[in-house]
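Fold it.
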Amino acid sequence: MTFLMAGGGTGGHVIPALAVAGELRRRGHQPWFIGTRRGLEARLVPAAGFPIEWIEIGGLKRVGLAQWLRTMWQLPASTWAVWRRLGRRRPAAVFSLGGYAAGPVMLAAWLRRIPILVMEPNAVPGFTNRRMGRVVARALINFEETARYFPPGRTERTGVPVRAGFFALPPRPRGATLNLLVTGGSQGSRTLNRATRESWPLFRAAGLPARMVLQTGTAAHAEFQRDFAAAGLAGEAVPFIDDMPAAFASADLVVCRSGAGAVAELAAAGKPSILVPFPFAADQHQLRNAEAMARAGAARLVLDSEMNGRRLFEEAGALWAEPGRLEKMGEAARLLARPGAAARAAELLEEAARISG
């Protein structure tokens, strides 16, 4: 069978879709993608060996009037183009992770009466999934509270596809040193980079036994590598971490943003965290993700505007000083994990195809 994968722009949309597409391919099906040339899908999808076709569409959230008008003008033409492609390829079902690239695909699939399954990795669905939520055959969610945005009885908590290496990590026993991993993602985070640098003299003055690994992003690496070498602390500043499961394995505490991929990896690895939501994320979804993790006892939430060296030092120090606290947070995080998300999504797509066919 042929299945159409929709959603793009960011890694949070593309990477889970690729995981599900890979599972479908292993089952003998033919997944293909629709996306935009400027989204991350333009690089990742062809690299993974999947066919992709292009549409022209932009965002509607947090954009200026000119972009909003351009997108509204593009939407009918893009939907019509997808509608014609659906007629030619006749996919058994459509799988969407939302994002502006998914809007025309979901509209066209609805007009063609092709079943639509969505995966919503965030606590609060994005614009596209909220608008189209009432017509989906199934919504696969990561947080229980997300179910209220979709029709009753059509949600299933599958979690988000995460690399198997994260699930394989055993609980880390407490040692004599606090191993702190700080990562703002592949590009780094100015807030987290700055707060980490400000915390170095505080950790040193307090004599708190700590080892830090900071993923700075490529642009800031040279500066931070020089400054860290002069700080007199154990650890390193690196531009990018290729093997993130290994970095998690060595960490007692992770400080990071709270995108859907990050929180899914923390849950899979059973890692306690200090979450600093990116303040400009659409619909404040990173804040909602962090709030859900904090409510579960798996993380501490610190707003971007409140994160500095003093706050980082105090939060990490307080967690380290309380015996068993990090271990309990790690256990709470692991309870949120859902292994086998990609396989379950593939099963539900096959099921939807059989029912509609």
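Residues 2-161+340-356 form a domain with the Rossmann fold fold (CATH 3.40.50.2000).
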